[in-house]
Amino acid sequence: MNVKGILLDLDGVLYTGDNPVPGAPEALRYLKKRGYLTRFVSNTTRKSRKIIESRLLALGFDIRMDEIVTPSVAAINYIRSTGLKRCHLLTTVDLRSEFEAAGLLHRDRDADWVIIGDAGDNFNYGTMNQAFRLVQEGAGIIALENDRYWMGSDGLMLSAGPFVRGIEYATGKTATLMGKPSAEFFGMILREMGLEPADAVMIGDDAVSDTGGAIKAGMQGILVKTGKFSSGALALADPGPTRVIGSIAEIDTIL
Known about the structure:
Elements: E1 5-8, E2 15-16, E3 19-20, H1 24-33, E4 37-41, H2 49-58, E5 68-69, H3 71-82, E6 87-90, H4 93-101, E7 113-116, H5 125-136, E8 140-143, E9 149-152, E10 155-158, H6 161-171, E11 176-177, H7 183-193, E12 200-204, H8 211-216, E13 220-224, H9 231-236, E14 243-245
Parallel strand pairs: 1-4, 1-12, 4-5, 6-7, 7-8, 8-11, 12-13, 13-14
Antiparallel strand pairs: 2-3, 9-10
Helix pairs in contact: 5-6
């Protein structure tokens, strides 16, 4: 596999729950030693990049914050480009701080955008109904990601996707997607890396958001059998991944 750059998912590829995937720190050192350009591309929308960096360091991964790309980075850039900066953030408190640090303040009324991330326990009837009303009043919808679920420390967890779909269904509007599998999201990352799609590969545990989205964007996709991988999802994947390996620890067998 002839590539210059590697995009790696975090949750399910480098770690699962509170534990590193066996061999993952060594695999990452191997990639960096070989001189590959790397970016760590996560649909995680519960945590700010600063918190993600701290967690990765604690797990034994030498990853800097400027190597981490999340949907909030793309959303902040997109919102600034529109000039419409009044945001209602249906997110965790930690993620809200990242938007506020960028000068985008949370509003409960007269919002230009309703921004939906994985809000965890902040998803309830009241918060969903408030988002619904703001969209009905004219706010656009920004989905920080559209994943269905992820693997937590005690099992599968609902992600933001089901809640995004609920607001779309209720309002008849379509959300603007910021995270994987958005081709614009992958394109933003590749432009920053100075690479063409054919020069890069995405490594992930989701056959739709990770490898499927990457392949549709012109990249190659390596699916790992860790995290939320399932053989059923792989069988339904269209397009299917370029390669399938047991875990990131086997990356030296194909790169």
